[in-house]
Design goal:
alpha/beta, Immunoglobulin-like, four-stranded mixed beta sheet, four-stranded antiparallel beta sheet, 8 strands, 13% helix
Length: 142
């Protein structure tokens, strides 16, 4: 009887723990300089969970379902890094640091063309220009 009750309690505890989410935290740095990187996007693949690193490069993602996940680190000007097989245990925090390498951003050339001449109409005002009457000059500050 006691052993049956013990087994039931153990089974109930394992079910409760299996449903408890875990956390992922760490620091993101520049691989070359070792400096911390702010505003790096950290995402759990296949979910809406993610975070952004703070000024010290630190991040924290809460409520991650227990299991094996892939994590993507991405930031403008750096090569994205994906870490596979990150195991999140129920109710525990997993530390995962990342070091990103810089990359060159390439764009298509920009072509600027004028399609009409800019003409100012007589009496039209231009932005930033204010007309002042000569008599009013004495009353304007400065």
């Amino acid at each position: 009887m006691k052993s049956t009750l013990f087994l039931i309690l153990i089974s109930f505890a394992s079910i409760v723990l299996a449903q408890e989410p875990g956390r992922l935290l760490g620091i993101v740095t520049n691989a070359k300089s070792g400096d911390s990187l702010a505003n790096v996007n950290i995402s759990i693949v296949g979910s809406t969970l993610g975070a952004s690193s703070n000024a010290k490069g630190a991040y924290l993602i809460r409520n991650i379902p227990a299991g094996t996940h892939a994590v993507i680190f991405s930031c403008m000007g750096f090569q994205a890094d994906t870490v596979y097989d990150v195991i999140i245990l129920p109710g525990q925090a997993k530390r995962l640091d990342a070091a990103l390498t810089t990359t060159v951003l390439q764009m298509q050339p920009i072509k600027v063309e004028a399609n009409r001449l800019l003409t100012l109409e007589t009496g039209a005002t231009r932005p930033g220009v204010q007309r002042i009457n000569p008599e009013a000059v004495e009353h304007v500050a400065g």
